């Protein structure tokens, strides 16, 4: 636990005065993969490997009111905006950009906009209130069993958090697009994910 707190402090302070670039680079998910911080500190990923064309695994995540939401069977195109931690500045920028995208594109209900992080449901609810986010993009927590991280291969072993990514899932639960950024100070290309989603409504 102490090591995790030290690493989180390091991440937060490293990002405190940074400008965050959107990248088109992508790296794999699952064990044997890794992610860097400031291109110098390396964290290892754990869990199964997920690829485009796979069916999203059956998982259950929690809302801020502790309701359970399943990853399969919604019948809609979904965009999962995967955040490392809501307590880091880069995730604030990522979440705000995603929220704006959801407000501009989610009114007709054809695409579901979903934020996922390993923060507790209560931390996510606080974050939504503090940032005055809309209800167009939901927040789901992977804090209980780290099921999302393990089943998608986005689990950061040393931190118990999720590696930054965006995942688009089709109406038939098939993965249409994955971008897992190789460097934690980079943002995923949310526009590319939205374009894929719109082409598969």
Protein topology:
Blueprint: H1 2-15, E1 34-37, E2 41-46, E3 60-62, E4 68-70, E5 77-82, H2 89-105, E6 111-117, H3 121-131, E7 137-141, H4 147-152, E8 155-156, E9 161-162, E10 165-169, E11 175-180, H5 190-199
Parallel strand pairs: 5-6, 6-7
Antiparallel strand pairs: 1-2, 2-8, 3-4, 5-10, 8-9, 10-11
Task: Give a concise summary.
With 201 residues, the protein is an alpha+beta fold.
What does this protein look like?
With 201 residues, this protein is α+β, with helices and mostly antiparallel strands. Helices cover 29% and strands 24% of the residues. The protein has helices spanning 2-15, 89-105, 121-131, 147-152, 190-199, and strands at 34-37, 41-46, 60-62, 68-70, 77-82, 111-117, 137-141, 155-156, 161-162, 165-169, 175-180. Helix 3 (121-131) links the parallel strand 6 (111-117) and strand 7 (137-141). It is globular. The model is unreliable at 12-17 (pLDDT under 50).
């Amino acid at each position: 636990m102490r090591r995790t707190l030290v690493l989180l402090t390091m991440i937060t302070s490293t990002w405190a005065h940074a400008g965050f670039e959107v990248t088109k680079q992508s790296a794999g998910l699952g064990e044997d993969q890794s992610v860097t911080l400031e291109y110098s500190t390396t964290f290892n990923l754990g869990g199964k490997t997920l690829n485009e064309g796979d069916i999203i695994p059956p998982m259950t995540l929690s809302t801020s009111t502790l309701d359970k939401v399943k990853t399969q069977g919604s019948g809609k195109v979904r965009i999962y905006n995967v955040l490392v931690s809501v307590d880091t500045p880069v995730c604030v920028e990522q979440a705000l950009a995603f929220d704006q995208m959801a407000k501009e594109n989610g009114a007709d209900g054809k695409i579901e906009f979903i934020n996922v992080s390993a923060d507790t449901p209560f931390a996510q609810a606080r974050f939504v209130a503090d940032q005055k986010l809309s209800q167009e993009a939901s927040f789901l927590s992977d804090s209980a069993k780290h099921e999302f991280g393990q089943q998608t291969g986005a689990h950061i072993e040393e931190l118990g958090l999720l590696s930054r990514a965006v995942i688009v899932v089709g109406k038939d639960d098939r993965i249409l697009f994955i971008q897992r950024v190789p460097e934690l100070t980079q943002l995923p290309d949310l526009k590319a994910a939205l374009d894929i989603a719109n082409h598969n409504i």
